[in-house]
Structure formats: structure tokens, C-alpha cells
Design a protein that fits this description.
- The structure is a single chain.
- It is built from seven helices and six strands, in the order E-H-E-H-H-E-H-E-H-E-H-E-H.
- It has about 180 residues and is an alpha/beta fold.
- It has one domain: Rossmann fold (3-Layer(aba) Sandwich).
- It has a six-stranded parallel β-sheet with strand order 3-2-1-4-5-6, with helices on both faces.
- The structure holds magnesium ion.
């Protein structure tokens, strides 16, 4: 059955830099490159879904985000065509409609349909509750990592009540939840 993992970018794949604009400001997270390759090799389709309200706020433009995404792959020594799909959500949270902005699950539902993915075999991984929420609303599994924004006690409670594991980082997520054996 076709399966996939959806990744948040900031705080999950790279360190969370406030309104990241300059590719030179990207800080990598140890182990991410290896883990991404491992997941892809295991047959998961790979997606990245990132909220970038800095675009609609005018702090930076699309080209800046593309440049950061390209630079991230370079730093991780991954091919330019590594992702099966990328969703950059430019909306700001005070907009009238969420559009593709998480916790909107619009992108996930589109990809589930496009690639005929089985949601129960798919994961959404991020550092904020909105990431988990996006996954759960799409009937996928969801997990949080502690490499980004500090996870509050409130979020920890919410996560445990909804079966969302909280992992130290992507590598430990992978070990515990994707490749148990
Ligand atoms: Mg994040």
C-alpha cells in the first residue's frame, strides 16, 4: 500500500530561525539527512509542508523560501528532486481563510488522493501541535519532535490523549515508530 511521511520544515528538518529568509542562516540538525534517506529508501513518499506567513507579511518572498529549501537539500547532500512534493503556505494566521496554512489539511488530502496513499500508513511530523493536528485531521498518524519550539505541558497532555508520540528528534522517531525491528 502506498505510504508517505509529511514533514514540517522549521524546527523539524532544520533549526527554527525566526522568519528565515537568508539561506546562509540555515542551521542543520544532526542525523536528519541519514534519517530522510532511510525513510525514502523504505518506500515512503516524501513531502514537506511548511507555513511561511513571512510571505504574506512581506518579510520575504517566494524566491527566498525556494532558495532556503534548495540550500537545505544541499547542506544535507540530498538531490534537488528529493521531495515528492513541497507545500509552502504563504497565508498569515489572521487571514480570513487558512488556505494551505497548517492546521489546514488541504495539502495532505490532495496528496493522499493524488498518490492513492493509505492514511493509516502515513505520518505527519512537526514540532508544533498544528502539525500533529494537520495529520490527525487527515486520518494519518502524527508525531512531534523536540528539535524545535519548546513543547508545553498542555501540548504534552493533548498529544498523549490523542496518541501522538513526542520524540527527541527525527532519528528517534524513525527508530521507535517506523523501523521497530
Ligand atoms: Mg515547525
Amino acid at each position: 500500500m502506498p505510504k508517505a511521511v509529511f514533514f514540517d520544515r522549521d524546527g523539524t528538518l532544520i533549526k527554527d530561525v525566526h522568519y528565515l529568509k537568508n539561506p546562509d542562516d540555515i542551521q542543520i540538525i544532526k542525523g536528519v539527512s541519514e534519517v530522510l534517506l532511510k525513510i525514502k529508501k523504505a518506500g515512503f513518499r516524501m513531502f514537506m509542508h511548511t507555513n511561511q506567513s513571512g510571505i504574506s507579511r512581506g518579510y520575504y518572498d517566494w524566491e527566498d523560501v525556494y532558495a532556503c529549501n534548495r540550500r537545505m537539500l544541499k547542506l544535507y547532500k540530498l538531490n534537488a528532486d528529493f521531495w515528492d512534493g513541497i507545500c509552502i503556505a504563504p497565508e498569515s494566521p489572521d487571514g480570513h481563510e487558512l488556505g494551505y496554512r497548517k492546521p489546514s489539511q488541504k495539502y495532505e488530502l490532495e496528496m493522499l488522493q493524488k498518490y492513492n496513499l493509505e492514511p493509516s500508513l502515513c505520518w505527519m511530523i512537526g514540532d508544533k501541535w498544528i502539525d500533529a493536528e494537520t495529520g490527525l485531521k487527515s486520518k494519518m498518524n502524527a508525531a512531534l519532535v523536540r528539535t524545535g519550539k519548546q513543547i508545553s505541558t498542555e501540548t504534552e497532555k493533548l498529544a498523549s490523549s490523542q496518541n501522538v508520540p513526542i520524540c527527541e528528534d527525527l532519528s528517534s522517531f524513525c527508530k521507535v515508530h517506523l523501523f521497530q525491528s
